[in-house]
Specification:
By secondary structure, this protein is α+β, with helices and mostly antiparallel strands. It is built from 6 helices and 15 strands. The longest helix is centred in the N-terminal third of the chain and has 14 residues.
Length: about 300
Amino acid sequence: VETKVENTTSHHIAGGDARHGDGPAPPAPPPAPARGRASVEFREIVAQSVGRALPVFGESVFRDHSRLAATDPLTIPADYRIGPGDALLIRAWGQISIDFQGDVSRGGSVFLPGIGEIMVSGMRLSDARELIRGVIATQYRDFDVAVSLASLRDIKIYLSGFVDAPGVHVVPSTATALSGLLASGGPGDGADLRRIQVKREGRVVASFDAYDFLLSGDKSGDPQLLPGDTVYVPPVRGLVAIAGSVRREAIYHYADGMTLQDLLALAGGATSAASAHELRIERQSADGREVQVLD
């Protein structure tokens, strides 16, 4: 069921149940699956009802791929793991002088002249720095050491599901699920931005809601990708629309347990011109169109 609500004074609100009162907002009815053409049809239904086309929330961000070009590939996440193909810059001064730049070998090590081979693959940069300091300290005293990444390797990932360009893609090794999706064409029509999954060796290792980033900039749930990971974008389960005297008119992706209050929050709340006592809810279902007016 795709739900839309309209104020009788042209304030359109999409959301939950027809009931209202002082208690908590009731959950919206479970929507019917919306796949491919279904999402396009819902946009048409909304446009006919409110008299204008509404944007799908978040779509413009994923369509503007030029934003990714300004991303610095050497912005290293705190939990980034060094791997074969990364280039390390190692410098030491004091009792010993080292100015080394070289790639991590396929075996996961770097070879420091005069020091020996040091295994660094799979380590965070801060941990690798302490390891290298400890190895050098077995032979020298009174020195300082700095370790940084000179360049990063590329990794291959896979996109599947409702994406614009399914298949194999090459992205920087610092890529997360969200940045990897952006770099590879973004989600396609009918994609669910609220249930993006990362699969590794046949298992789902992470699932995140892109709305956390789109609404508040929160990327804490956006996992870093490893070579061979698959980013899977499932079909949208349902859509809801809100229009009229709200701060952000749009079509939103349905989430389990979503209420009218949740939808109003997504839209930034009602404006001062809105009348909270006159609402109209429209629902589209297999049985046709249902309209309920709330006073």
